[in-house]
Design a protein that fits this description.
Shape: elongated
Distance between the termini: 50 Å
Number of strands: 0
Low-confidence stretches: none
Number of helices: 5
Structural class: mainly alpha
Length: about 130
C-alpha cells in the first residue's frame, strides 16, 4: 500500500522529471522502505514542491504577483503623502482622484523598477 502511495506521489511530479528519475526513486523506496517510510515520503513531497515551484517557472509568476502587491501597497501608501504635496489636485472630482492615483502608481512603479535594476546588478556581481 505504501509503495502505491509513493508511486502516486511520483506521478504528481512533472513528466520530464518522472521519466528521468521515477524508476530510481522507486528503487530507493524499495530498498529503504523497511527502515524509514516517513522520511521517504517527506523527501518525495519536498521533491514535488521543488520540481513544480522552482524548475517549472511557477516561481516567476508568484514573484511577479508579490511584486505587484508590493507596488500596489506602496502606491496606496503614497496617496496620503502625495495629497499634502499636491494641494492643487482637487479630490472632489473623479479627475483629481484619478490624477492622484496615477501619480502614486507611477512613483511606485519607478521604485519597483529601480529596486529590480539594483537587484539584478547585485546578482550579476555575485555570478562574476
Amino acid at each position: 500500500m505504501s509503495r502505491l502511495l509513493y508511486r502516486w506521489l511520483l506521478w504528481l511530479h512533472p513528466p520530464r522529471f518522472r521519466q528521468q528519475f521515477a524508476e530510481e526513486m522507486l528503487w530507493i523506496f524499495d530498498e529503504e522502505a523497511k527502515q524509514d517510510i516517513p522520511r521517504l515520503f517527506a523527501d518525495g513531497l519536498v521533491s514535488l514542491a521543488r520540481q513544480w515551484l522552482v524548475r517549472s517557472g511557477i516561481w516567476k509568476l508568484l514573484l511577479a504577483a508579490a511584486g505587484a502587491l508590493v507596488t500596489m501597497a506602496v502606491g496606496l501608501g503614497l496617496l496620503p503623502a502625495l495629497r499634502h504635496g499636491f494641494d492643487f489636485i482637487k479630490l472632489d472630482s473623479a479627475k483629481g482622484v484619478f490624477t492622484l492615483i496615477a501619480i502614486s502608481s507611477l512613483l511606485a512603479i519607478s521604485l519597483t523598477l529601480t529596486l529590480c535594476v539594483i537587484w539584478f546588478r547585485f546578482l550579476r556581481r555575485l555570478r562574476a
